[in-house]
Design brief:
This protein folds into two domains: about 1-275, no CATH class; about 285-465, no CATH class. The protein contains 14 helices and 19 strands. It has helices spanning about 20-25, 35-40, 45-60, 80-95, 115-130, 145-150, 165-180, 210-220, 255-270, 285-290, 315-325, 335-345, 420-425, 445-450, and strands spanning about 1-10, 30-35, 60-70, 100-105, 135-140, 155-160, 190-195, 225-235, 245-255, 295-300, 330-335, 350-355, 370-380, 380-385, 395, 400-405, 405-410, 435-440, 455-460. The strands form four sheets. An eight-stranded mixed β-sheet has the order 12-13-16-17-11-18-10-19. Strands 2-3-1-4-5-6 form a six-stranded mixed β-sheet, sandwiched between helices. Strands 7-9-8 form a three-stranded antiparallel β-sheet. Helix 3 crosses helix 7 (about 165-180), helix 4 runs parallel beside helix 5 and helix 8 runs antiparallel to helix 9 (about 255-270).
Length: about 475
């Protein structure tokens, strides 16, 4: 049994100011071909790591083609996407015949001229392998799904957790399913139910209410006879595409009626509780005004979440920390390559004047003038040690720990959200000893920081990825969408 694998993955913010080119794929989370894919992801907590575990479990040959994941950012130029897709398809053609295809995708990829990137990609794979070869795709929790991609694949499987600590598990689930399809043990049929609602990030933390109740329902339904898989996707609202929003996908064995009935059951349940999935975020002043009984207090600077494609250099939080003259305050990470280079040129222990942040887009605020001490320097290379990406490596580029009085800032050159404390620790920072920590992240930071947090507040400071969705300049989104448009 030979199963081809790979994928082109990206979470695309159509509001981000810079395009995601081929170079961003090559310099992003990873760009691997052939056997390098197996070497890189064996034992890793991503879906491809789960595919590899599945190969060991079931004894199939995994045929690796091309795997690439650019860090979330702006629209992908059509020529760059076409080149990546052509390389993948060329490798697939050379690998034929195969018994199946496992695709490791995201679900919110947007290409210049193609609103549904994954739908286009899966359809292209289908044209190469034909109708009888099963295709199973895995997706992020934040996919904006379409009927087109559902029709092109035999089955799809989405993440069940946020932070995404179950990626390898979903890969194993996909591997188990495709083996059963190839052996003729099941014949999947899929039903898709879209839900026109904005799902607040603060209401998506799957280890806490309210969304934990939704996933308890999902897991109960998956145990029912005839149900092969259930995906609940919360959507990615910073992609201005017609299909943006939440959805339910149910894969059943042979019974289209069961799939349809079950998708509608879960969809109706979610929709009836739609007010529970929306929560207005705090301003930074409101968050700092909360009574703190234990430290550190974590502030999720969601509107500048680099993990969703934001630039990472917004300055409202920094400016507020400085104006309030906070003690033992920390910001992770502020993207400013010029200041990072300036710190390296000066050296550890020197004091320098910097104009920090606010350089990518007017919505990010203006630079903050500071006289800072260069506390530590780094080339930005480190190894994650938290539950989400533990064992994988990161590269934040030229980086520095800067400090003005009690305000500490980790300045980096590459956009990446803090998933755990590994890089801060490598610089010599004790996060648990801080009183306030602001992170350019929405939820994923919890995987590595929640255990030390005295409190966590989601804030909506000034930045391009505001969570006040009524302020975003949509042109294509459907109307009405809850809680906007009077519905």
């Amino acid at each position: 049994m030979r199963i081809a694998t790979g994928g082109i993955s990206h979470e695309t913010s159509t509001f981000a100011p810079t395009p995601t080119t081929r170079r961003e794929f090559e310099n992003g989370i990873g760009f691997f071909r052939g056997g390098d894919i197996l070497a890189r992801f064996c034992g890793a907590n991503n879906c491809t790591g789960g595919f590899i575990t599945g190969a060991d479990r079931h004894g199939y040959e995994l045929v690796p083609l091309l795997w690439t994941f650019a860090y979330p950012g702006g629209l992908i130029p059509r020529a760059d996407y076409d080149a990546l897709k052509a390389e993948f398809l060329d490798g697939l053609k050379k690998a034929l015949p195969v018994d199946g295809v496992l695709l490791d995708l995201h679900g919110a990829m947007v290409v210049e001229g193609i609103d549904d990137g994954e739908g286009d990609f899966i359809a292209a794979v289908r044209r190469v392998v034909g109708q009888k070869c099963p295709i199973v795709a895995t997706f992020d929790l934040h996919g904006n799904h379409t009927q087109a991609r559902i029709d092109a694949a035999d089955a799809v499987i989405g993440f069940d957790t946020y932070p995404h600590v179950d990626m390898a598990d979903r890969g194993v689930e996909a591997a188990d399913l495709i083996v059963r399809i190839i052996r003729g043990e099941v014949r999947p049929v899929t039903a898709f139910r879209d839900l026109p609602l904005f799902w607040s990030a603060a209401c998506q933390v799957t280890g806490h209410p309210p969304i934990d109740e939704a996933f308890r329902l999902v897991h109960e339904v998956e145990r029912r006879p005839g149900i092969l898989s259930v995906t609940l996707a919360t959507g990615f609202p910073w992609a201005d595409v017609p299909h943006m929003g939440a959805s339910v996908i149910v894969v059943a064995d042979k019974d289209a009626g069961l799939a349809r009935k079950t998708a509608d059951e879960i969809g109706d349940w979610v929709w009836a509780r739609r007010e529970r999935w929306h929560r207005k975020p705090l301003t930074i002043d409101e968050a700092l005004g909360q009574q703190a009984t234990r430290f550190p207090v974590m502030l999720a600077d969601m509107a500048d979440n680099t993990g969703g494609g934001a630039p990472g250099d917004s300055t409202e939080v920094l400016r507020t920390f400085v104006e309030r003259d906070l003690r033992n305050a920390l910001i992770l990470y502020l993207v400013d390559p010029d200041v990072a280079q300036q710190a390296h040129a000066a050296g550890v222990g020197k004091r320098i004047h910097v104009d920090l942040g606010g350089k990518s887009h007017p919505m990010q605020g203006t630079p903050v003038p500071l006289d800072v001490e260069v506390v530590a320097l780094s080339d930005g290379k480190f190894t994650y040690d938290g539950p989400m990406y533990g064992g994988l490596t990161g590269d934040l580029g030229t980086s520095a720990w800067l400090r003005q009085r009690g305000v500490n800032v980790v300045v980096v050159s590459a956009r990446m959200q803090p998933l755990d404390q590994a890089f801060a620790r490598a610089l010599g920072i004790d996060c648990a000893g801080m009183e306030y920590i602001a992170v350019k992240s929405a939820v994923h930071f919890r995987s590595g920081f929640e255990r030390i947090a005295g409190a966590i507040h989601n804030i909506d400071a000034q930045a391009i990825h505001t969570h006040d969705f009524g302020r975003l300049p949509y042109r294509q989104r459907r109307k009405p969408m809850f809680p906007l448009d009077g519905k």
